[in-house]
């Protein structure tokens, strides 16, 4: 079976999820020791593409799912399966995505990563994971966090859907503030297997006992 490549969410590079013990975990630009790049999902995909194996299964959460979607659309001969965990096709309008380049740098300065970390941790329903979420986000370089959030605000994955050839498993959190009916309907139209769970955006951390067996079975059925 070909390699599994897992892509982390914004500021969550130090955390692991999923049932894949031997998965590869590329570090997205601006996270940990990875250099920064242009704050766009396409540029993040460009940065990690050279390190990918010839044939892969891609799995990504949030920003990592956006990057995985771009890669799967590009690598149609190399990607055997795609798993997306609460990955928005674009940010909801109430988040004012077009204003991201102006508002994100302000948010990263004030209240700053430590306060943002506590907000995200509060939305993590698995209480045991909250300290790790706080630690990961707090340790992220402000410039890297700003870049990642700006990349999310600029992303629109809808034009990519018809370019996918790999089977897709789309896993969503019912209480997520970032995904919903739009993703369910859009992925359903391309024949993706879509499942919704009684949790929020931090799905892979909140419901591992539910999502991990599904992910493993999905990849085993698409070797």
Automatic annotation (TrEMBL):
Pfam families, per database record: Abhydrolase_6
Keywords: Hydrolase
AB hydrolase-1 domain boundaries: 4-212
SUPFAM superfamilies, sorted: alpha/beta-Hydrolases
Gene3D superfamilies according to UniProt: alpha/beta hydrolase (3.40.50.1820)
One annotated GO molecular function: hydrolase activity
Protein name (record): Alpha/beta fold hydrolase
Organism listed in the record: Histidinibacterium lentulum
């Amino acid at each position: 079976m070909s390699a599994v490549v897992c892509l982390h969410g914004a500021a969550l590079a130090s955390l692991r999820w999923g049932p894949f013990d031997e998965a590869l975990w590329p570090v997205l630009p601006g996270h940990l020791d990875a250099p920064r790049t242009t704050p766009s999902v396409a540029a993040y995909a460009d940065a990690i593409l050279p390190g990918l194996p010839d044939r892969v299964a891609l799995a990504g959460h949030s920003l990592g799912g956006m990057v995985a979607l771009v890669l799967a659309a590009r690598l149609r001969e190399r990607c055997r399966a795609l798993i997306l965990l609460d990955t928005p096709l674009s940010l909801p309008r109430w988040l004012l995505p077009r204003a991201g380049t102006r508002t994100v740098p302000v948010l990263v300065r004030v209240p700053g990563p430590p306060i943002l970390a506590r907000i995200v941790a509060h939305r993590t329903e698995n209480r045991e994971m909250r300290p790790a979420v706080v630690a990961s986000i707090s340790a992220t370089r402000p410039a890297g966090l700003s870049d990642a959030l700006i990349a999310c605000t600029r992303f629109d994955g809808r034009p990519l859907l018809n370019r996918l050839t790999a089977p897709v498993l789309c896993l969503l959190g019912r209480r997520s503030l970032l995904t919903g009916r739009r993703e369910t309907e859009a992925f359903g139209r391309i024949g993706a297997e879509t499942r919704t769970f009684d949790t929020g955006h931090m799905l892979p951390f909140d419901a591992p006992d539910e999502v991990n067996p599904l992910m493993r079975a999905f990849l085993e059925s698409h070797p």
